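Appendix B, Record 12. Input sequence as logged:
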Amino acid sequence: ASYTGGETLTLRLFHEDGTYELPEVYVGTGDAMMRAHMMEIALMLLIALVMVVLASVSIGVSLYLYRIHLQDHRFKDAAVFLVLCAVWCVTDSAVIQHYSGYTSLVRMISFYAFMLFALPMLHFVRNSGNMKQYRSLDALIVAFYLNAIIQGVLNYFGVFHMIDMLFVTHLLLGVGVIVVAVLLIREYRETRSSELKFIGGAFITLAASGVLAMLLYWLFEIPYYELLFECGILIFMVILLCG
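Logged structural output:
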């Protein structure tokens, strides 16, 4: 650390893999620092709260439909998806990981939530119209389960860390979006179902936000790529539930 009067204090961490610069340093009481950190993630916490509220609405609708003997498993799929997304949003935050006191555990929960949140959406699509006829959806579901299991085993035995295998999950998500989009278009052309039109529009929104977020992460290393994807998830779910 170095400091010259009248200049900005700069801290640099040197590591064999490169040089890391901390752009900001907070100085103050513990309470003041905590408030500052919480303000940084306020929008993310609000998005996570909205996801939980929407999940509660989905569960309520699912229970109502069950009561009147008109079951639709997609509302449960939507609720599970939203809960996993909310968990990922919160646990992926460095602030939450730090203040939890269990950084490694919270980070692990974050990775598993991210690897698994696509599964309830694949089940949602599979339970729509005649989409169960497409075996490629079943293959995608199996692929996501295997991805989580294999990454967990490799991480446990120290072969790879979760962060080193993140690109595999991103690649699988990209493939999944393309496959689902193609199948939805094919089915819509055959049935002209307004329901599938809503679902297709929702997936286009989610795919656009997801692709843009991954570009920001891999090409530009912009730290706020998550907020873009989280907003895309909210718009995606609102369109689905309205449909």
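The radius of gyration is 21 Å.
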